[in-house]
Design goal:
With 293 residues, the chain is an alpha+beta fold. The protein has helices at residues 3-11, 13-25, 27-32, 44-56, 105-109, 125-132, 136-159, 197-216, 254-269, 277-289; strands at residues 60-69, 73-80, 88-94, 167-171, 174-178, 181-182, 185-186, 188-189, 229-232, 235-238. It binds adenosine-5'-triphosphate and magnesium ion (MG).
């Protein structure tokens, strides 16, 4: 994202209002929580208002670096509070959904449960309609629903033994999870890795097993590629479940599974891993439908 866009996003009136609301809500935490990393940052108020609650709840004790700043979220490396049993934690802080374009939103939304601003499942017709109307409240409901679903998905998949970062907490527009890296250095993306053919075959097999495991949990990643997989020697970790869907809520999502499988096959083909993506996706889907995964 260009610098000028970032500046205009932060001077946006809605963003300013959001910041004020957050600051009022967590005033006491802000006084105590003062990471040195934030001192010179123009977005420090925003980050602070998003992460202060994790500090208050004794999940993190400092924020030390920015790992990545993308279109929809920024990921920070935090020092974990000793009570978490971890040394570092990753905090993914979303720009609220109401402030960003809803790219290809409809297909994903139909595969999801809509939630109200407090995370309750929206059941009645008025709430269902409000999710389609871009009113202020509906947009806020979508922010809450979207991030809660990502967190829940990661919990579900982690519990089932999938290779995903252990989710730790979710508050407002921020998610705290296991930090994948070597000390404070983040793991590289699979896209940047240089693999030997035998390692490639074993990581490919692992990722296909993960796709099956996701589906056994009624989830399709929906944006799986070498850009959403972290790599450490002989190990892959799938991240970014922001676009995950539940096929039970929308059976028309097979093309998303096909695309996930095809991207993995295409990536590993350069290392000589042979696979027929169409047949593989169809086989996984058939076994899912037959309850045989
Ligand atoms: N648990 C983690 N441990 C270490 N690094 C992480 C972790 N989660 C995310 N990252 C880093 O942050 C980047 C962005 O994370 P993610 O893909 O979840 O967000 P995003 O909204 O898709 O951002 P982008 O628009 O940059 O893709 C990742 O590419 C990775 O480099
Ligand atoms: Mg991503």
């Amino acid at each position: 994202m260009s610098k000028s866009k970032k500046q205009s996003y932060e001077s946006n009136q809605d963003v300013q209002r959001w910041l004020r609301d957050q600051a009022e809500e967590h005033e006491s935490a802000e006084v105590m929580f003062d990471p040195s990393f934030l001192a010179s940052r123009r977005d420090s108020e925003w980050i602070l208002s998003s992460l202060a609650v994790f500090y208050q709840q004794e999940l993190i004790s400092d924020v030390i670096s920015e790992v990545s700043s993308g279109k929809e979220a920024t990921v920070y490396c935090c020092i974990a509070h000793p009570s978490t049993g971890a040394e570092y934690l990753a905090a993914k802080v979303y720009r609220p959904r109401m402030f960003r374009s809803l790219k290809n939103d409809a297909v994903y939304r139909t595969g999801r449960t809509q939630r109200d601003v407090d995370g309750r499942v929206a059941r009645d017709r008025r709430q269902g309609r409000s999710a389609k109307k871009p009113s202020r409240q509906a947009r806020a409901a979508r922010v809450s629903s979207w991030i809660a679903f990502e967190f829940e998905t990661q919990q579900l998949l982690h519990q089932s033994g999938a290779n995903v970062p252990r989710p730790v907490a979710h508050i407002g527009n921020a998610v705290l999870m296991e930090y994948i890296g070597d000390g404070p250095d983040p793991a590289c993306l699979l896209h940047e890795a240089d693999l030997t053919p035998p390692e490639a075959q074993s990581l490919f097999d692992c990722l296909i097993r993960n796709i099956e495991l996701f589906l056994a949990c009624d989830r399709i990643h929906g944006d799986l590629s070498a850009y959403n997989i972290l790599y450490r020697p002989a190990e892959v970790t799938v991240i970014d479940f922001a676009q995950a869907v539940d096929p039970r809520a929308n059976p028309e999502v097979f093309p998303l599974l096909e695309r996930d499988v095809a991207r993995i096959c295409r990536y590993f083909a350069r290392y000589g891993v042979a696979a027929d993506p169409g047949a593989l996706a169809a086989d996984i889907w058939t076994r899912y439908m037959m309850d045989e995964l």
